[in-house]
């Protein structure tokens, strides 16, 4: 950021969240924000009690105020997420699940009911570890969600920070209860996200393990009809909203500093494919 502001470089890969508002105010012509093919979520280890109980997973997901995360903590144009596949994914029009159409107050009330149904409450608080990899933003979100869960549901959350390699190993071994996660599409199509949750895909230590989900995705991947495939993708998202193996939190944006004198920089570029051969300086 400092090198950009001193004129040494013409664009950055990202910009610090804590400087975003100042930069937007002082250098509006240089702040670039584009939609990104990525979703931030928390993963539940469905192989471990009590997260093998859908009521517990759903309660935790419902009690997350995604608007606070997207608008107050991050505030760069990120969208609250209620499904895994980002809305900007090519040829994909996700359906908002029922819980995404509720008010936060309604979600909190339902979360408390579900948790009580599972045998937990303020008199018998659910205690668990929340794993995240080293990053100021991950820490801010983990602290905020821990606070939301405590205030709304009386939960006792212990934050566990690990360096990247250790964090990946811990998730791969399934040695976690709830973990921060995120996924960026390898290509611009819904299957780049939805295949992540198949039982035989252990990328990121996913522990969904749903035969019904696997069958939907297999059918979609073998379909020769675009209409049928998209219907199956929607079915897969609906099943995840019902089973809640993950709690989607927000859809990423890519914010960077970009000098107005840089020509040829790609717009509407969710995969962030930037080719230097297309770039030029206009002055």
Write the topology of this structure.
Layout: H1 2-5, H2 20-26, E1 31-44, H3 54-62, H4 66-74, E2 79-80, H5 104-117, E3 127-133, H6 136-153, E4 156-162, H7 164-172, E5 178-184, H8 191-194, H9 211-222, H10 226-243, E6 246-257, E7 262-263, E8 280-281
Parallel strand pairs: 3-4, 3-5
Antiparallel strand pairs: 1-5, 1-6, 2-6, 7-8
Helix pairs in contact: 3-5, 9-10
Overview of the molecule:
The chain has 283 residues and is of the alpha/beta class. The protein contains ten helices and eight strands. The strands form two sheets. Strands 2-6-1-5-3-4 form a six-stranded mixed β-sheet. Strands 7-8 form a two-stranded antiparallel ribbon. Helix 3 (54-62) runs antiparallel to helix 5 and helix 9 packs antiparallel against helix 10 (226-243). The longest helix is centred in the middle third of the chain and has 18 residues, at 136-153.
Brief rundown of the structure:
The protein has 283 residues and is an alpha/beta fold. It has helices at residues 2-5, 20-26, 54-62, 66-74, 104-117, 136-153, 164-172, 191-194, 211-222, 226-243, and strands spanning 31-44, 79-80, 127-133, 156-162, 178-184, 246-257, 262-263, 280-281.
């Amino acid at each position: 950021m400092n090198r950009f502001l001193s004129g040494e470089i013409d664009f950055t890969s990202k910009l610090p969240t804590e400087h975003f508002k100042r930069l937007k105010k002082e250098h509006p012509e240089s702040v670039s924000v584009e939609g990104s093919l990525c979703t931030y979520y928390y993963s539940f280890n469905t192989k471990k009690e009590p997260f093998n109980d859908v009521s517990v997973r759903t309660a935790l997901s419902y009690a997350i105020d995604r608007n606070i995360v997207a608008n107050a903590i991050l505030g760069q144009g990120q969208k609250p997420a209620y499904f895994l596949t980002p809305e900007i994914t090519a040829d994909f029009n996700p359906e908002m699940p029922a819980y995404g159409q509720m008010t936060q107050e309604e979600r909190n009330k339902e979360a408390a009911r579900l948790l009580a149904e599972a045998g937990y409450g303020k008199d018998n608080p659910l205690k668990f570890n929340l794993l995240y990899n080293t990053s100021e933003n991950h820490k801010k979100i983990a602290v905020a969600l821990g606070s939301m869960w405590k205030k709304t549901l009386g939960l006792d959350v212990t934050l566990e920070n690990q360096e990247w390699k250790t964090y990946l190993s811990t998730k791969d071994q399934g040695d976690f209860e709830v973990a921060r996660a995120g996924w960026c599409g390898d290509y611009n199509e819904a299957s780049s996200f939805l295949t992540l949750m198949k039982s035989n895909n252990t990328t990121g230590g996913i522990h969904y393990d749903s035969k019904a989900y696997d069958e939907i995705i297999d059918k979609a991947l073998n379909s020769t009809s675009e209409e049928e495939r998209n219907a199956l993708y929607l079915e897969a998202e609906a099943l995840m909203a019902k089973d809640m193996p993950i709690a989607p939190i927000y859809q990423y944006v890519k914010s960077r500093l970009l000098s107005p004198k840089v020509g040829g920089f790609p717009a509407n570029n969710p995969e962030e494919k930037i080719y230097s051969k297309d770039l030029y300086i206009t002055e």
